[in-house]
């Protein structure tokens, strides 16, 4: 027979991911924890503390995998969430999630509320154009990555090139750095990464910008070399059942976060602004036939 104390402990552990709303009046801030749960807690606890202090209501961080986050929003167990544009767009389409603020990323030059993708090869490669990748091996961190693959795939398709059909292979890697090293070492002919990755690795002394060639490079004022059009950055959104007045309060106080606040410093961002138009994200997901948008 299971002792009563052990049974209580087991039930407690089973409920850790999404505590029952009846136990407290805490509001759950789900975090797309693509860097791991520990890092998510370190980066986002200050934001929850900031919201708690400003609004007089308790906010707690809930690190989630992509699937856990989407399931939590679906079931109404996540009140607010931080996620990439693709996950927000899908949650908006399927479950009525509402974007509250768009992230303003801190960079070494100028803050930006946009992201983009970079299609690149090594400097010595014979590849000079997008079409030159036909019949070649290509790499991305994951085909489920919005900035790391979907925006690049959309760029290829817009140029009349179907990478899924015309490339020899599209390989996935353990990390975005693995993509960069695979291209540098000639293991694959080219790769797609989130814009800013090369600059970040170069600043850390891991690679040299001069060792790479960006294909079909865009000419604009964006702070990173890139290929694709610009898309709105990650956002914080609210579930459909979150009280409207609380949504408005959260949006207002997040827009007041200063670059020097722990909420910004810990999360490595410059602040938050009124939400951008995420229509370009929906257009991209529809073109590449991602998730719920594949059924259009």
UniProtKB/TrEMBL annotation:
<keyword id="KW-0732">Signal</keyword>
<dbReference type="Pfam" id="PF12974">
    <property type="entry name" value="Phosphonate-bd"/>
</dbReference>
<protein>
    <submittedName>
        <fullName>Oligo_U binding protein TBRGG1</fullName>
    </submittedName>
</protein>
<feature type="signal peptide">
    <location>
        <begin position="1"/>
        <end position="24"/>
    </location>
</feature>
